[in-house]
Amino acid sequence: MAQEENKKNNNLIFILIILALLGVIGYLLFNNNKKSETIEEQEKTIVLKNDSLASKVAELEGLQLQYHSLQAQAAQLGQSNDSLSAKIAELDNAIASLKKGNAVNINKLNAQIESYKKDLLAKEAEIMQLREENKNLSATNDTLKQDKVVMNDSINNLRSVRSDLQQKYELASILKAENLKVTVINPKAKELSEDEYKIKNVDKVKVAFTLGDNKVAPKNTKVLYLQVIEPSGAPLFDSSLGGGFFKTSDGKEIPFTEKQSIDFTNTNQAVSFVYDKGSEYKVGTYTIKVWQDGNLIGTSAFTVK
Questions:
Q1: What are the phi and psi torsion angles at 36 (to 5°)?
Q2: What percent of the chain has pLDDT over 70?
């Protein structure tokens, strides 16, 4: 009976020993697995050296050059891109860190490189789209410039036509002194109408005419100028007798003998000047000219013998 009890105790001890061994083995296996995971993580984070270091640095520098190229292209297109500058600065820091030999997570570095590549593709697409938009805008600008040239030509043509019409209007609005007749008044206040006049019979000179029909000319006040030109070619004018100077349509300033203002009504109205020279006339032929707005509108002559 005692022998059986000892046998049972031995079996129990044996089982306990086995269980203890299994526990130790389990612990060792668990601990070994944790160490393997730690080693794996440590293997992922290493210090790049030699060829691996140079390769990654060169790859990052290549990406940075591409960013610089895109930045230059954007500038040529008149655009500034802060995100490109940020990426270039970011790559500067990464490259500097690698060159110093700092520890780096290979997986994270490779993932970051792939991210840069995708970003570059997106940025290149944006630049291409911007270039195309600028090309279309340039074409539109060229079209607008051509349209502007055509418009300017049209405006210049209109101005030319307007100027021509204005000139024609101004010419058409010039009055005409029709039926212009020159007579003299002798010292006895008698009006004489002859081909030639004796000096003693010429006291005053009368110039009479009618203003011809003109539907273009505005109905307003017109200033008419009379010139009595001596046989020598010198116009008679005396400021004390109403004489003075006026400008012709070509800008010349010439003397006039007398002037008067009339209200033009376009009714073939009669107009007359009576000029009193106040002194004896010279022998010869005198020329009579009538002007309006600087334009000669009638001429005649009379002779003194």
A1: -65, -45
A2: 79
Partnered with residue 286 across adjacent β-strands are: 302
* 8 A C-beta contact, residue 296 and residue 175: no
Q: State whether residue 254 is helix, strand or coil.
A: strand
Structural domain contains residue 166: no
SS3 142: helix
Cα gap 273→261, rounded to integer Å: 11
CA distances (Å), 172 to each of 10, 96, 209, in order? 148, 89, 19
- HSE of 35, CA atoms in CB hemisphere, 13 A: 6
Q: Are 229 and 112 contained in the same domain?
A: no
Phi and psi angles of residue 179, each rounded to the nearest 5 degrees, phi first:
55, 40
Token readout for 252 is 């010349």
For the chain, give the number of residues. 305
Q: Quick check: is 171 in a domain?
A: no
Counting the structural domains of the chain, the total is: 3
Please report, for residues 198, 208, 218, 230, the alpha-carbon distance to residue 284 in angstroms, rounded to integers and kept in the order given: 10, 21, 39, 8
Parent domain of 91: 47-145
Distance in angstroms (rounded) separating the CA atoms of residues 140 and 118 = 33
Whole-structure pTM value:
0.50
The reported pLDDT for the residue numbered 167 is 62
* Same domain membership, residue 27 and residue 71: no
Q: What is the pLDDT of residues 223-249, one digit of tens each?
A: 999 999 999 999 999 988 899 999 998
> Within this chain, do residues 105 and 191 fall inside the same structural domain, yes or no?
no
